[in-house]
Amino acid sequence: MLTTRALKNQTQRSRWLFFVSAREARAKMIVYGMSSSAPSAPRPVTVRCPFCSRLNRVDLDRLADGPRCAECSRPLRFDRPLHATEADFDETIRTASVPVLVDFYADWCGPCKVMAPLLDDFAQARAGEVLVLKVDTDRNPSLAIRYQVRGIPTMIAFREGRETQRASGVTQRGLLDSLVGLT
Question: What domain range includes position 165?
Answer without folding.
Answer: 79-179
